[in-house]
Amino acid sequence: xxxxxxxxxxxxxxxxxxxxxxxxxxxxxxxxxxxxxxxxxxxxxxxxxxxxxxxxxxxxxxxxxxxxxxxxxxxxxxxxxxxxxxxxxxxxxxxxxxxxxxxxxxxxxxxxxxxxxxxxxxxxxxxxxxxxxxxxxxxxxxxxxxxxxxxxxxxxxxxxxxxxxxxxxxxxxxxxxxxxxxxxxxxxxxxxxxxxxxxxxxxxxxxxxxxxxxxxxxxxxxxxxxxxxxxxxxxxxxxxxxxxxxxxxxx
Length: 251
Ligand SMILES: Nc1nc2c(ncn2[C@@H]2O[C@H](COP(=O)(O)OP(=O)(O)OP(=O)(O)O)[C@@H](O)[C@H]2O)c(=O)[nH]1
Ligand SMILES: [Mg+2]
Description:
Bound molecules: guanosine-5'-triphosphate, magnesium ion
CATH class: Alpha Beta
Structural class: alpha/beta
CATH topology: Rossmann fold
Strand content: 15-25%
Largest sheet: 7 strands, parallel
Radius of gyration: 17 Å
């Protein structure tokens, strides 16, 4: 533990989205672009492996001990939405070990279109779609697509190869988001990388003001795992906010 803990904890930024859409690659890219100006750490979530963490350590974008894996033992959305304990502990350990941190990036293991982070776990969240997943996915909606703080339409370089009209896909995505931002990203397109980094800087700056509150994109759709039915009901209304005191550690 540091002698004098910082009065404000690190900004917690979640990255979620379906399997293989490029979440780990985006985290690697953000670390590569921003580690020179921000003190960063990463938590990854996976069911039984720490593969994402190993990928990020191998990418050499951050000191290896700043990257930690949570093995959820169940669907990753459970650990980012329903019981966030393991993730919160991993983040707090990183904050203690590397204080002061500017931001902790949290990757959800790849999951379906409705997986979103609890606003009690992250301050803001990026939902990632992949052009190669099909142009119509952006129209399908779901809380991540419509309500995440940022929607990334990733791998735009693949559009011509998979027969997807990227401009139309981005327009469809934007139309479903009620003005919330969309970034069309390819790691091969420096302008798009700048746009993503610009959003992260802006959101971090907003977090550091007293005006920032985490918003909830909405819960998982009801679903089942074998015999267990998850209904994910909540007593509070959605688009709810986290107590602003929480992020200063006062709660
Ligand atoms: N063409 C192209 N491929 C990309 C881009 N970004 C990522 N990829 C590739 O997409 C594949 C999946 O990337 P990951 O970053 O592992 O995706 P992920 O969402 O973390 O995957 P899971 O954690 O398994 O759900 C890899 O082969 C990446 O190299 C991009 O901008 N363009
Ligand atoms: Mg990954």
